[in-house]
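Quick one, probably user error.
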């Protein structure tokens, strides 16, 4: 397995420096894979990056009948202020009495067509940049505001470090030769970090070596080894003097400006297509880190865990970095169970727009699906048999190939036995079975299982981009 040498070879005493550079290079690799591999498909709804003129945009007309039929949910049979899933107004915290379990029936309503009208956004969308270059897109994600912030905080930290350790700095230390950096040097540093990801070496000094067997003369022509290491040493995004014992999320506080900036760019530069999925990803990291996770099913096994919202093309629209008890979620979902809090925080900006969300059994629950339906968001996913609200009559033992389903208004729960029991919850499908040709012959599988397997593939694509 190839190691991320150019990150792991950073000075051992600078843990923050190692994690910071790792975050920058990993996210940049993800951004540039979107640009290079997805042009014409992944980025086809990307926003104009500058000088957007009103006469170049098109408003979406939702007047008349289409205003009442939004995202496949019609209001023709509903009175004003009412819906099929009317909110009871009860609090969602754990101290209130739980809602009564929904009653599931053997027959369900007529399912709506999956090709119902879908509104991407009720705002002005920008056209795809057919002539966008890599440099233009890099400047979009790392714009002047972010570069200026890095320059300011890097210079500030260098001065703070020199004042604090002035007497202890050795006479011939590189630190004594520090000069204030500028935007050109920071952009150069980011570019070299990207290039080092394409040309990995065990140690930084090997990029500046003059030995013919390992020489890469491009680096020495761009920047001196001394300047390169000084920039890495003092690279900063926040003012250390503002951090104290009362600072929230101290684990990520030094990189939060960078993460928030990139998250905002991911969300504002692209309008996802209708089918989206939420799952966890693992960015490989074997260094010292308090919130490092171990997930044996992932390729890298050790690293930092992300809860992320993906389009089926593999585009990461939103993400949450897991740091334990102080993980940052949307404040207005704080009373929800943890798994529901993750889903609702990630999908918050896409609710009420008719999206179709695919989840695995770690996140799904009957209560969460009801909440999503109220917000005009369909849901398809596997679900654990011991979740609250699952009909007890679905615990019946089935033979291979058999299935049974129960309905509660728009929601269907279907149990199907393949090699083992598979329990699905969906607001898009009925209990229809489809014939599939396999190595062992032709078998029947539920339609919801086939579509779930297809749409969750975007998560695997994103994992490939990250590694």
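Nope, works fine. Designed sequence:
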């Amino acid at each position: 397995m190839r190691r991320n040498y150019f990150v792991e070879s950073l000075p051992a005493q600078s843990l923050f420096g190692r994690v910071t550079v790792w975050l920058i290079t990993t996210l940049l690799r993800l951004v540039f894979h979107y640009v290079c591999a997805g042009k014409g498909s992944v980025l086809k709804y990307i926003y104009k990056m500058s000088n957007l003129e009103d006469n170049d945009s098109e408003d979406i007309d939702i007047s008349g009948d289409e205003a009442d039929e939004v995202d496949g949910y019609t209001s023709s049979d509903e009175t004003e202020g009412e819906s099929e899933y009317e909110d009871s107004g009860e609090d969602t915290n754990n101290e209130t009495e739980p809602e009564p379990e929904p009653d599931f029936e053997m027959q369900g309503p007529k399912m709506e067509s999956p090709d119902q009208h879908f509104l991407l956004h009720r705002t002005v969308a920008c056209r795809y940049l057919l002539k966008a270059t890599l440099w233009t897109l890099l400047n979009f994600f790392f714009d002047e505001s972010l570069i200026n912030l890095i320059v300011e905080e890097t210079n500030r930290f260098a001065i703070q470090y020199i004042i604090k350790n002035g007497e202890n700095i050795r006479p011939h230390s590189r630190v004594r030769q520090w000069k204030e950096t500028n935007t050109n040097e920071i952009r150069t540093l980011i570019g070299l970090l990207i290039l080092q990801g394409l040309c990995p070496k065990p140690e930084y000094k090997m990029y500046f070596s003059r030995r013919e067997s390992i020489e890469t003369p491009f680096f020495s022509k761009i920047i001196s080894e001394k300047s390169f290491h000084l920039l890495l040493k003092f690279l900063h995004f926040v003012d250390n003097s503002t951090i104290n014992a009362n600072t929230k999320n101290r684990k990520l506080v030094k990189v939060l400006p960078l993460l928030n900036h990139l998250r905002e760019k991911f969300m504002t530069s692209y309008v996802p297509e209708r089918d989206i999925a939420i799952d966890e990803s693992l960015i490989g990291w074997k260094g010292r880190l308090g919130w490092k996770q171990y997930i044996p099913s992932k390729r890298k096994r050790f690293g930092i865990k992300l809860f992320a919202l993906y389009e089926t093309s593999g585009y990461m629209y939103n993400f949450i970095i897991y740091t334990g008890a102080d993980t940052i979620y949307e404040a207005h979902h704080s009373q929800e169970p943890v798994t529901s809090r993750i889903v609702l925080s990630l999908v918050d900006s896409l609710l009420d727009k008719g999206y179709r969300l695919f989840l695995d059994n770690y996140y799904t629950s009957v209560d969460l699906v009801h909440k999503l339906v109220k917000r005009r968001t369909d849901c398809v996913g596997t679900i654990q048999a011991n979740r609250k609200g699952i009909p007890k009559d679905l615990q019946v033992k089935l033979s291979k190939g058999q299935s049974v389903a129960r309905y509660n208004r728009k929601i269907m729960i279907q149990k199907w036995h393949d090699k083992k029991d598979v329990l699905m919850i969906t607001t898009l499908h009925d209990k229809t079975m489809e014939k599939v040709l396999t190595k062992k012959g032709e078998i029947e599988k539920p339609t919801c299982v086939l579509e779930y397997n297809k749409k969750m593939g975007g998560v695997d694509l994103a994992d490939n981009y990250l590694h």
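The two ends are 10 Å apart (CA to CA).
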